[in-house]
Each structure stands twice: as structure tokens, then as C-alpha cells.
Design a protein that fits this description.
Helix 2 (about 75-85) crosses helix 3 (about 100-110) and helix 4 runs antiparallel to helix 5 (about 155-165). The chain has helices at about 40-45, 75-85, 100-110, 135-150, 155-165, 170-175, 180-185, 190-195, 215-220, 245-255, and strands at about 1-5, 10-20, 25-30, 55-60, 90-100, 120, 200-205, 225-230. The protein contains ten helices and eight strands. It is globular and about 60 Å long. Helix 9 (about 215-220) links the parallel strand 7 (about 200-205) and strand 8 (about 225-230). By secondary structure, the protein is an alpha/beta fold. It has an eight-stranded mixed sheet, sandwiched between helices. It folds into two domains: about 1-130 and about 190-255, Rossmann fold (3-Layer(aba) Sandwich); about 135-175.
Length: about 260
């Protein structure tokens, strides 16, 4: 069952699992990836419902939460979530994020350190992908071709089709969320990550091509207190399903080490 609150004048939908939130409970807040909803993390969260309070979010523009009225970056998403979490009782709180949800969690931990006691990040996005010289040349050629054709085509509809063809799968399927997607992927969270004080546990699938392990290596050098684990055989999305048992193990271990 989904619940809804209004924070900063905008609705936020969420689902609660497990123990009720109180000053005596440890709370897990789950932030999903791009074009996902809370349901992508629900099977994993359900495992922790016997011992912890769990809040599974639908970020604005996804699932049951309506789109923002303007183009948000991840800082605006973090501000929106923080304004509500400030009212939710807890003894301690861990943010569990996947991909886009990791971006929001990093912003939260950096700008609202009193709200977050630990970050457990799965396939964290937010840094430029390091490419080979050949790979960089291909990307630049693709961008040049797209910009050139965009000037030539006569209608907005055709320009939209060009964007879908030359853009990523996420860009092509973003629909009305496309301006937000474009804003988000341009962000570089390097400087933000450097200010995070709480412990961070990073998990990456070795077969992940969207947020490769090299991004995890870079993040682990930016966070002050970071652990990086690489899981063989898993990609960006199947790590949540086929890799679920390993994620459970590492999250339990992280919480034990943090005395949460």
C-alpha cells in the first residue's frame, strides 16, 4: 500500500515495510534507479522488514509520485526528500540506493549529514565514465552528427526522433522526464562525494556497462570512509534480482560494522 505526503509543495509517494518508525528503530530508506519505482527494491527490502523500519520511495516523476513542476537535478530531489525525512523519527538511518537513487543519497548525505548515518550504494552513478581514446572519439562523432542533423530537420517531431535515435535507451524512453534526465546525467558529483562524512559501502557488478566498476574505484577514492565490493557475473539491473542474496549479506555486514 502506498502512502503520500506533501513536502515543499510537491507530493511524494512511499511504501512502509517492517517496524514502525520511532526514536528506537533503525531505518532503511530505499531509493530506486532511473525509470524504476520502489517495486524494484521491494523484494530486497522485504528481507529486512523483520528487524528494521523500511521506507521505499517513488521519486517525483516515477511510480505514484507526479512529475516535478520544473527541471530538477539530484540536489532538488535530495532537498525534497530531506524536507520530509526531517519529520520522520528514527534512531539511525541508512540510505540504500540503486543507480539514480545513489545520486540522490550522496546529495542527502553531503547536505543533510544529520539525516543519514550510512550509505549503501548499488551501481552508483554520478561520475564521468572513463573512456578509451577510441571510445571518446566515437562519442564525440555521434554528438557532432546529432547536432548537425538537428539543425537540418524541419520539425520538432523529427528532432525528437533524432534525439531518441542518437541518445541512450534511458533518454529514448524518458518521455516528459527527458529534460530532467539530461540535467542529471550532466552532473559530476566528485566534489559532493568528497564532503560525505558517513561510512559508504559500494557494490558494483563486474558486468555492469552503465555504471562500470571503474566508477566505483573512483568513488572509493573520493569518499572519506568507503568500502568497495565487486560482484562477478552481474550487470546493472540483474544485480538486484540474481545478486539479491549477496546484496543482503553485504548490507547486513555493513550495518553490523556501523553498529546500526
Amino acid at each position: 500500500m502506498m502512502n503520500e505526503v506533501s513536502t515543499m509543495g510537491h507530493p511524494l509517494s512511499y511504501r512502509s515495510l517492517g517496524l514502525p518508525s520511532s526514536d528506537n528503530t533503525t531505518q532503511l530508506v530505499w531509493g530506486h534507479g532511473w525509470m524504476h519505482t520502489h517495486s524494484a527494491l521491494a523484494p530486497l527490502a522485504d528481507f529486512f522488514s523483520r528487524k528494521y523500519s523500511n521506507i521505499l520511495l517513488d521519486f517525483p516523476g516515477f511510480g505514484s509520485s507526479p512529475m516535478p513542476s520544473s527541471v530538477w537535478g539530484t540536489r532538488q530531489y535530495a532537498d525534497h526528500v530531506a524536507s520530509w525525512l526531517q519529520t520522520v523519527p528514527k534512531q539511525s538511518r541508512v540510505w540504500v540506493g540503486h543507480s539514480f537513487g545513489c545520486r540522490v543519497g550522496i546529495q542527502l548525505a553531503a547536505h543533510y549529514p544529520e539525516l543519514i548515518d550510512g550509505l549503501f550504494l548499488i551501481g552508483a552513478a554520478g561520475l564521468p565514465i572513463k573512456r578509451s581514446i577510441l571510445g571518446s572519439a566515437k562519442i564525440k562523432s555521434k554528438i557532432f552528427t546529432y547536432k548537425l542533423l538537428k539543425r537540418i530537420v524541419p520539425t520538432t517531431a523529427l528532432r525528437e526522433k533524432l534525439g531518441a535515435y542518437f541518445g541512450s535507451r534511458d533518454y529514448a524512453t524518458a518521455g516528459p522526464m527527458r529534460p530532467i534526465f539530461s540535467a542529471v546525467i550532466r552532473e559530476d558529483l566528485s566534489d559532493v562525494a568528497k564532503t560525505v562524512e558517513c561510512p559508504v559501502f559500494l557494490v558494483y557488478g563486474e558486468m555492469d556497462t552503465e555504471t562500470p566498476v571503474s566508477m566505483g574505484d573512483a568513488f572509493s577514492k573520493l569518499f572519506r570512509r568507503a568500502t568497495l565490493v565487486r560482484l562477478p557475473h552481474f550487470g546493472h539491473v540483474d544485480i538486484l534480482s540474481d545478486g539479491m542474496h549477496q546484496l543482503r549479506h553485504h548490507l547486513l555486514h555493513f550495518m553490523k560494522e556501523c553498529s546500526l
